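Recall that a protein's primary structure is simply its ordered list of amino acids. Everything else, from secondary elements to tertiary packing, is in principle encoded there. The following example makes that idea concrete.
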Amino acid sequence: MLTEAAGSPFAAVAPSTVTFDPSGQHAYVTSRDEIDITSYDVNVTTGAMTRRYSMTSRSQASNLNTSTIAMVQGTAPVAFTPRFAYLTNTTNSVTALAINPTTGVPSIASGSPFTLPGSPLAIAVNPAGTVALSVNKDGSHTVTAHKVGANGVLTPIGSPVSTGVGALAAAISVDPTGRFAYTANFTGNSISGFTIDSTGALTLMSGSPVAAGTNPVSLAINPHGKFVYVANKSSNDISLYTIDPLTGALTPYSGGAFGAGTNPQDVATDPSGKFLYALNVGSRTVTAYAINPLNGTLSVAAGTPVTTGLDPIAIAAEPGGKFVYVANSSSASISAYTIDAASGALTAIAGSPFASGLNPGPLEIDPNGNFLYLPSTGLSQLLTYSIDPTAGALKPTGNPLTVPGTDAFTLWGTAQ
């Protein structure tokens, strides 16, 4: 005799199939209407299901549904190996860095730096590590695609593509499927979307750009490729867009933007896609939000905002979902916080803030969460820190690398 579990039925979007892992503690649900797979935690005593997150199930969608899942039991965990990092330099070039996967020590790749057309300001790499996209600050208001070759060598693919608006693009991000890219157009108060074909070539999306708040300066795509969040620096808010899984087109949230602190400068999501963090340079704070997994809407987490150092410039979440780090430009330091797994609230780590070089810039964390990298414009160095996996404390590795002045920084690796 069957008795329905308390709380049943549990919310899902047009569920098609349910698959359980061998432990019975996790369930994976496909959808008839989406290309997503949704993960649930299963209470082994009561049978109650708690939704955790959704992820896109394929990189090239030919239809909207995912019909089945096959689960295998592997013999080793997935490992992520950092390969290269790119620094866009104030000297209108890009420096490629090779990353030692064991020690985390970076070294300048052979032939680097590379002089690229358009004077690159920001750069992003697709998940496969085969294409890099740079936004150009030469007044052309364009984005250039580059093939990533041996030793990180960048070769332009075709001609630069217009953002569709005569304005400076301050940031660029690639979605998790590698099919779409988006720019935050700072002086155009808009977001431009691009499709990326199998060769890496770019095409401006129909209907692009779409309106944003005032002076959008950075953007974050949630790990499942469903939502885009944009920090609008001068309107003090965060814009939300839903990504069409087939075309990449953006649909603005009908309820308007979500309030942030003063002058939000950067945004980051945690790796589970449950939380968003907005770095507010004017109020010297971080605001934490819980993300509604169904529509992407934001709710401010209890206990936030938390304070940072002087002139916070960049924020990053550790890939394990345990820690958040902030680079503070004027106080030459890194603020570090633990993430509450239930609420997303932040708590300062013992020993925080940690000393950095003068005028630290954009920071990156390696895919395994073992090392943090921070360019210091004042020292013309790239600093490397090891991350304590339990406490999140930072320790300099003692291997600073001399690099040019840096506008932007991105690091990528591969999963095995």
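The longest strand covers residues 80-89. The radius of gyration is 21 Å.
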